[in-house]
Amino acid sequence: MRDAFIRQLTILAKADPRITLLTGDLGFAVFDEFRRTLPDRFINVGVAEQNLAAIATGMALEGHVAFTYSIGNFPTLRCLEQLRNDACYHKANVKTVAIGGGFSYGNLGFSHHATEDLAILRALPGMTVVAPADLWETEQATIALAGSEGCAYLRLDKSNAGRTERPGERFELGKSRRLRDGDGLTLIGCGGIVADLMAAADTLGLEGIECRVISHHTLTSVDGEAVRDAAGQTEGIVTVEEHGIKGGLAGAISEFCMEADVRPRRFRRLGLRDEFATVVGGQDFLRQRYGMGRKAIVEAARAILASR
Fold it and tell me: pLDDT tens for residues 18-40?
């Protein structure tokens, strides 16, 4: 996802002189092409995320489309006050990009686990939050956010679901994508963990359980039509996110269902349950350890359907 993002951003920046990239002392080899071709629009502010957000806001208020880049929680939680008071309050064109969503940096411990970012950023007024599932969604989200007004958060993952686009498909912020059809259950996910949803659906398909899989990449705008269809046409909804179950994808879907009087037959949330990950390990290991990987999804689906 990181490479897909910077490749697309470089293309956009060559055509749009407003686009500027600011980094928190990270990503140099990845940014070589951007720095070489657009040196006046590449700024390294150092390990100073509050400055990163504040400088980006100032540049945005002067007409730039300012992309900031760092890992995990650093461009989001460490500078949350600057994002809230400076960028969001002034509706500035600041696009915060974090590589390392969820357990991407699982081996570095919980300080590098981005497992509350979606909920916290989603709570900021005017902030668009996007967690793409695959490389195509990453490219398209970069285009969409560069062309949209206001603040945005693009959460990139170490893992991804490959390329899932169909010929002629259009990407739209707030519009989910149905990656697999079925009427057994609907699995709704965001981010790279959608690859696990697809794998789990394949396993369940061998058992005669055909699951619908939806990539709900935009967290700040629920695709009501897709959720209504899932509630009415399948046996239930399971949300899966590499994140806490409070305030992220599950929160967004739950809030929509309550307010729109949409009642899935069954509803389950898979993700961290009011805890930090206290062990370290690779991304797949931690997904399984905390009950959100493909095996956990399969087991949850079987249990839900067995309770009918």
Answer: 999 999 998 778 999 999 999 99
Distance, CA of 187 to CA of 215 (rounded, Å): 9
Please report the beta strands in the chain, taking only residues with DSSP state E, as ranges in sequence order: 19-23, 42-44, 65-71, 94-99, 128-130, 152-156, 177-180, 186-189, 212-215, 237-244, 267-272
What's the CA gap between 179 and 157, in Å, rounded?
19
120 contacts 127 by C-beta, under 8 angstroms: no
Which pairing describes strands 65-71 and 19-23: parallel, antiparallel, or unpaired? Answer: parallel
Q: Are 53 and 81 in contact (CB under 8 A)?
A: no
Percent of the chain with pLDDT over 70: 100
Phi, then psi, of 139 in degrees rounded to 5: -60, -45
Residue 32 contacts residue 72 (beta carbons within 8 Å): no
- Nearest-5° angle of CA 13, CA 165, CA 103? 75
Selected catalytic residue, list 49, 137, 241, 242: 49
CB 150 within 8 A of CB 91: yes
pLDDT for 128-167, tens place per residue?
A: 999 999 999 999 999 999 999 999 999 999 999 999 999 9
Amino acid letter, 218: T
Give the integer Cα–Cα distance in Å for 72 and 156: 9
**Contact, 213 vs 197, CB < 8 A?**
yes
pLDDT for 29: 86
139 is catalytic: no
Mean pLDDT of the chain: 96
Structure tokens at 71: 């890992």
Q: Is this prediction's pTM over 0.85?
A: yes
Neighbours of 301 (CB within 10 A): 25
Q: How far apart are CA 26 and CA 45, in angstroms?
A: 10
